[in-house]
Amino acid sequence: MRPETVEQYAKALKAGQKYYRAAVARGGYPYLPVLDEFLDENSIAARMDLGVISIPMELVAGTKSAGRTTALAGNFMPLLPADSEFACKWMLLCDAHLSDTGITDPIYCFEYMGRFYVQEGNKRLSVMKSYGAALISAHVVRLVPEYSDDRAVQIYYEFMHFYSLSRLYGVALRHRGWYARFQAALGMDEDQVWTQEDRRSFSAGYVRFEQALEKVNAEKLDITPAEAILIWLETFSFAEIKELPMPELTKKLNSIWPDIKAKIQEAIAVSTEPEEKDQSFLAKLLSMGHSYHIDIAFIYGFDPKHSAWTRAHDHGREYLEEKLGDKVSIKLYNAFDKDYYAAMEKAVREGAKLIFATTPLMIDDCRRIAVEYPDVKVLNCALALPYAGVRMYYSRIYEGKFITGAVAGAMAKEDIIGYVSNYPIVGEPASINAFALGVKLTNPRARIKLRWSCVEPQPVWELINSGITVISNRDATNSSNPHWALEWGTYRLQEDGSMLPLAVPCWTWGKLYEQIVLSIFNGSWANVPQSKAINYWWGMKSGVIDVQLSDTLPDGVRSLAEILKQGIVDGSVEPFYTRIVDQAGREMNDGNRPLTPEEIMTMDWLCDNVDGSIPSFDQLAPRARDTVRLLGIYRDSIPPEKEEKQL
């Protein structure tokens, strides 16, 4: 044997013995896992011969059968002494590896659920691994499990489709729908087969990104390179991975690292109320010539003259100016052409240190601005988006819906009440269900007939034509909107055909804007961990939501509504602190606890007194699809849109 061969075995033996001792010390299994010992052959749906391919060493998990199990430690390093027959064969293979020809025969292995188990060639693999080889040639037979409800199996089936297009192992994504998103994010059609040049281009960038990720991920968090790349592509291009100098690549990756952590760990911190403050703070701030001042930009995606949504935020902007006066300088930036980034960049150039982006569709450009200008605070009006660099804000409109539901139940002459919902996005089922529970409070017999404005062109008239006289429509954009009938609030159809307003939930964005600015002035803004995604989700207690009651309400109904309002404000009334059964008869709450903010936010079911369903993506009008793709309650199952070609 060559001296270096003997020395290599000694090093490998030492590594194997070290692994063995460490495994035994922690009570673990010191040898290689054996596929035959845990795989039920009856669960295999098919065997696919993939032929000879290069496989990543890091994905080789064990052996197929139990033969010579004790010869190798769990890291594929040898355990037998140097004078053993096993060691002699190992060193002969090592000699071959060091020769001009090298080891030419591929190993033979089985792939199951993305991991490889060696049938023939354990020593060959051990030798290659001892030299730090990243890939090894292998004849692979894939064992395909039966499809099931198991999440891991479902993701594996998505991987198999991705592999049939890309021929790439090592792209590990552990969320349903992410392989399709990965393909789309790289600019590929859903069933587009990768070319050899595509694979080369991707592999070159992947290796560099993996190196940068290793430097940035000092905490050794459980994040795969492919998962991090997918989030990177939401802000930057794949070309930058290949072209940027390594220090610059690492710097950019580090700038979005909080977003990556939040997205992978699903770490959203939901703020349900502003932090308690000294009640005299605002008065002191405004009357004592406090030096605090901030330049604020409002970014509008739609013209307030034509968009009730933007008009509501504009009312909030006016409220903020009135309340804080010369402590704020506010400018409006219109991005009606959808070039949100240009509007935000202009705002920053003109001195803005706080940006309110008023529609969810601005989120990607918000993130880009937050990365490029870390001293600028950026907020986006959206809910349940896990990005640490941009804070989200929304309101708990369901609290107002609960009260209007109670009013509707009390005022309905029939036992059917109409409800018009807008988009099937996060938080919308909570509004529907809160309204249904409010109705059940005052009229247990009543049914809710649900319709969607994003599906039907005239849902209100459809309800009226079906004989329904009490209808809940959209929420008011501000508390002083007088035009309730047909467009806003809950109302009752009179015998003469006129609309009698009953009650309407109101958004008061100005209260939220005021509290956000004051949190910056008093320092509470900085009290939140930077690694978490912050979602402000405030309700009636903070004044962001109110319910306007009609003067025509009977005294008893009005008194009940006022009691419920006060109860929600002081915490004695919680809409979902009751027994709740869904349409399928499942008990969603036994009534002995309130639902958590996360449970309310992510509802994807409807109460048992609701007649109707949540529309599928294909049923939606085109105008609704971008928002639902971003915020929809089933957004992970929506086929992704292909981006610009990246490879």
Keywords:
single chain, 647 residues, alpha/beta, 7-stranded parallel β-sheet, 7-stranded mixed β-sheet, 39% helix, 19% strand
Can you describe this structure in just a few lines?
The chain is of the alpha/beta class. The protein is 39% helix and 19% strand.
Low-confidence sequence ranges:
479-485
Q: Radius of gyration, Cα only, in angstroms?
A: 31 Å
Please give the count of helices. Answer: 22
* Widest sheet: strand ordering: 6-17-11-10-9-7-8
Mean pLDDT: 91
The tally of beta strands, per DSSP, is 21
Shape: elongated
Could you give a short account of the major beta sheet? Answer: 7 strands, parallel
Which structural category fits the helices and strands?
alpha/beta
The portion of residues forming beta strands comes to: 15-25%
- Share of residues in helices: 25-40%
Distance between the termini: 47 Å
How would the blueprint of this fold be written?
Layout (H helix, E strand, L loop, with lengths): L2 H23 L9 H4 L5 E13 L3 E4 L21 H14 L8 E6 L2 E6 L1 H9 L4 E11 L5 H16 L11 H8 L10 H21 L8 H8 L5 H6 L2 H10 L1 H9 L2 E4 L9 H7 L6 E7 L7 H17 L3 E7 L5 H10 L4 E4 L5 H10 L4 E5 L9 E5 L2 H14 L4 E6 L6 H15 L4 E6 L6 H7 L4 E3 L17 E4 L5 E9 L1 H14 L10 E6 L6 E5 L5 H16 L8 E3 L5 E4 L6 H5 L8 E2 L10 H10 L16
Parallel strand pairs: 2-4, 3-5, 6-17, 7-8, 7-9, 9-10, 10-11, 11-17, 12-13, 12-14, 13-21
Antiparallel strand pairs: 1-5, 3-4, 14-15, 15-16, 16-18, 19-20
